[in-house]
Amino acid sequence: MESWAGALRGALHRGADVADLVARLSSGDHHWYAATHARPTFCNVCREPLGALGTAHALACELCKFKAHKRCASRAPPSCKWSTLASLGPHVVEDAEGNIIMPHQWLEGNLPVAAKCDVCDKTCGSVLRLQDFRCVWCRRCVHAACKPTWRASCSLGPARASVVPPTRLHSVGPDDAWVPDRPPNASPLIVFVNSRSGDNQGVKFLRRFKQLLNPAQVFELSGAGPRLGLRLFRHFAPLRVLVCSGDGSVGWVLQEVDKLDMHRQVQTAVLPLGTGNDLARVLGWGASCDDAANLQVLIERYERASTKMLDRWSIMTFERALTAPPPPPVPPDLLEEDSLLRNLQDIMQAGEVSSIASTSLRAGCSRLAAVGERAGGGAARAAHRLRRAVSLLLHARAHLAHDHARCKSWEPVETTSDSEPEAQLVAEKGSIEKTEKEQLNWAVRGCALAGRADSVRRALRSLLRTLTQVYPQVCS
Ligand SMILES: [Zn+2]
Ligand SMILES: [Zn+2]
Ligand SMILES: [Zn+2]
Ligand SMILES: [Zn+2]
């Protein structure tokens, strides 16, 4: 936390000093580091082999890969990778209409293995001497003899949509931002790397991104912070931002984007470095990237990527005295099962509607179901089944009771001797037929009722079984 606060203070302080940064970018000075070389490599100053004196004497520029002996470095021309229009110096080229075009920036010798000339398609470069040329932007190689016939404008290589051509960064406005060309080109990518991330893996990423893009669009996060970079490119829309670090830095960059009111134009991607990359993990980008070799492919992939909106939340925390956790929802008296089953039995056996048994079964089951619904999941589903089964049972019981009452009213009447035999017979016959039919109906419905009662019993058991898992203490 301390180091972040320090970095933030430093960033705010340095943020105003845009002029200093622009002057540094335009100076053409190389950025040396002690380098080792597996294959024969030659000094770009004295043209002698570098290997002869051992690695302790070899330097390479981390931006343009210019090579030099330690003793020769001070005599190296300020020809480092261009970043602004001013840094092109005498190399500015204009077309017939006076438009500035991006020329190739040639670096002599030390070409990759099996390099081919882009003009004559024959092998070029040599392991014996400093020979032939390679453009540090488009990475095309040409023979020294073929160079004059090669086209003058540079394509900026495969990731041209991401690269900000140095010819476009010509002046900084009064608001400390690059004045954009009209019309603006495709959305450039600006990169923030926390060089301390991932066991200092960040240093490699920082170096590699500066080689692949314009050094002016790559920013060291732990030093300058995100504000300077975002402000410089605030007139580029849409602006794609890549953060190479953990969650903390991503949050820092997003916060600055909000503060500068750039959230409508900025699209952010994360390249997770080191640990603490929950955001990248959650979004399916992987936990950590430790290989700086494939960044070229990655940049091209970002150019084709689609965007998704992401909510950012502010979480407010309040301190308060530690209290016991709130009690769990009141567990049911699971022993109620017995009384409910008794109610059920009463309902089945009573010839008349047992309103007391019905009411207490309905009330008891409803109480249990409410507990189940509160517990959620399987208990809630079981509770739903129980409510439905009880409702169907009581409905069926009410119908049956109704039929039973009608049945009784149709019982054969006592016959007397003085009644007319004919009429009596007919009345008796009709009565008997009707009663048999109703009684048959009653039996069928009785069977159905038994089925309903069984459903209630099963639903009750299932709910209680689920609840005993939720409230084991009650049943132990
Ligand atoms: Zn030398
Ligand atoms: Zn350089
Ligand atoms: Zn080129
Ligand atoms: Zn050639």
From TrEMBL:
Residues in domain Phorbol-ester/DAG-type?
A: 29-80, 103-154
Keyword annotations for this protein, in alphabetical order, are: ATP-binding, Kinase, Metal-binding, Nucleotide-binding, Repeat, Transferase, Zinc, Zinc-finger
Q: Name one GO cellular component term.
A: cytoplasm
**Gene3D superfamilies from the entry?**
3.30.60.20, Probable inorganic polyphosphate/atp-NAD kinase, domain 1 (3.40.50.10330)
Write out the GO biological process terms. signal transduction
The residue ranges crossing the membrane are: none
State the top-level EC class: transferase
Q: What residue stretches are annotated with the DAGKc domain? A: 184-319
Which Pfam family, any one, appears in the UniProt record? DAGK_cat
User: Listed GO molecular functions?
Assistant: ATP binding; ATP-dependent diacylglycerol kinase activity; zinc ion binding
Tell me which EC number(s) this protein carries.
2.7.1.107
Top-rank taxon: Eukaryota
Key word ATP-binding present: yes
What is the similarity comment for this entry?
Belongs to the eukaryotic diacylglycerol kinase family.
For this protein, the record's PANTHER family field holds: DIACYLGLYCEROL KINASE, DIACYLGLYCEROL KINASE ETA
List the protein's name: diacylglycerol kinase (ATP)
